[in-house]
Design goal:
The protein is an all-beta fold and 120 residues long. The chain is built from no helices and ten strands. The N and C termini lie far apart (40 Å).
């Protein structure tokens, strides 16, 4: 069974940067599209970035121009570079393989996520 493991979160001041990582223990992302999601307190989980195997990306409007999703297939790892962070970016961040029919839904079991807190 594939277990998603996210890391790299922490406390950062507004305007700061963080780089999140995600690996798939017990499996491989392979040629699947990968995505980063986030869930803020009281909100539903939302897809913020998506990357196909071929390199096409999609971003939520709220993070466009600030976040960059990338992958290292040899290391079976997906990254999310987050720059110019805002307090509203505070959330638990998760990675997953988005469903083709409903990208807001991940096709793998959710990992524990990594908490990002943006605060001065």
């Amino acid at each position: 069974q594939v277990q998603l493991v996210e890391s790299g979160g922490g406390l950062v001041q507004p305007g700061g940067s963080l780089r999140l990582s995600c690996t798939a223990a017990g499996g491989r992302f392979g040629i699947n599209t990968v995505g980063w999601y986030r869930q803020a307190p009281g909100n539903q989980r939302e897809l913020v970035a998506r990357l196909t195997y071929g390199g096409s990306t999609n971003y939520a409007d709220s993070v466009k121009g600030r976040f960059t999703i990338s992958r290292n297939n040899a290391k079976n790892t997906v990254y999310l570079q987050m720059n110019s962070l805002k307090p509203e970016d505070t959330a638990v961040y998760y990675c997953n393989v988005p469903s083709n029919s409903d990208p807001d839904r991940g096709t793998l079991g959710w990992g524990q996520g990594t908490l990002v807190t943006v605060s001065s």
